[in-house]
């Protein structure tokens, strides 16, 4: 605890109240009060302050004030740890909780305190995960002077702005790579350069079986075989061995077709279908789960070309069109095998790959700086709030 800071239970300085869901005939495309569902927290532009929604309520006896901090309180979304600030007086759905703060606390300071909380430690079990609001109310929140709160907010905002800039740099590099792909090879939809087209199954060697991985990897085994899961796909192209769950060697050996060589493209076929990552040599001998198919290619196809091709809008749209399932989205191997692949000359693919590798080197530098900035933010958050 910091010297000269006051500490109070959250329930003493904030009112926590659940939301409600209006009837369908009370929702309109325009109105006085925006209506936010938990899913609206995922909308671009709503990362910190909730402002964008397709639904409004004309009038309501129950709304939540601008500046209230809202977060999921029921369902799997609780473990996503999303916290948002209401940008104006609003309504939130019944799976959401609103924390309405008293005037002694700066809204953004309170947001950062909430942001630092791991809701997974406050979840009650059962068929429907539920946030333990009683436990949340009992947590101690620091209350320095308003001047100190605002100084802390300025510091943390500054670090977050730097993170935003670094993430934007990575997106710009990705846009450059995509632009380079279309300039070099043309749009796969129209194939204006008339490249020969084959199926994906025709550009992989016979030994690449395009198979699903381990169905049930079991418990994490200390000296087991590392297994890549869809959850291991991060914001980097490369999948890291560190932190992978491990399975029994006997289980991995039962799925010989998906034991990794360490140079594959890994593509998700369950959940976030079409998401991809690159295996590195350190993954040689590792395996993958049911949700991932490893791919490598014949000599006439360059891996960087195939990676950017499969990430193109053309290929991703085909994957999306062939994805099915409401609760668990997935794509069949047969549909994956049938994806059309343009086959430009290998020399042109290799020239493209040289340019992509140069872009990747620059991205690696930015990513390293981004990791350092995120580490700094975590350290400052821990200093102030733990």
How much is the average pLDDT?
Answer: 94
Q: Give the % helix.
A: 25-40%
Reading the helices and strands in chain order gives: EHEEEEEEEEEHEEHEHEEEHEEEEHHHEH
- What is the count of structural domains? 3
Question: How are the strands of the largest sheet arranged?
Answer: 2-10-7-8-5
Number of helices: 9
**Shape from CA axes?**
globular
Strand content: 15-25%
Radius of gyration from CA coordinates: 24 Å
By CATH, the superfamily of the largest domain comes out as DNA methylase specificity domains
Total strands: the figure is: 21
What characteristics describe this protein?
386 residues, Adenine-n6-DNA-methyltransferase TaqI, Chain A, domain 2, 5-stranded mixed β-sheet, 3 domains
